[in-house]
Amino acid sequence: MQYELTCACGWTTSGDEEEIVEAAQDHGRKLHNMEVTREQAMAMAGPAGAD
Description:
The chain is 45% helix and 22% strand. It is of the alpha+beta class. Strand 1 (3-6) and strand 2 form a beta hairpin.
C-alpha cells in the first residue's frame, strides 16, 4: 500500500510503509532534532491519493 505523509513544516513524502517510516525518521532527526517512532510516522500518514 502506498502512503503520503505531510509534516507540520510542510515537508511531504510518499511511498510504502518502510519508505514513509524511514523518511519521517530521517526528516525528524535532521530538521527538527527529534526522534520519530514507527507508530508516530504511521499515525501521521494516510493513503496516497486520499485527498
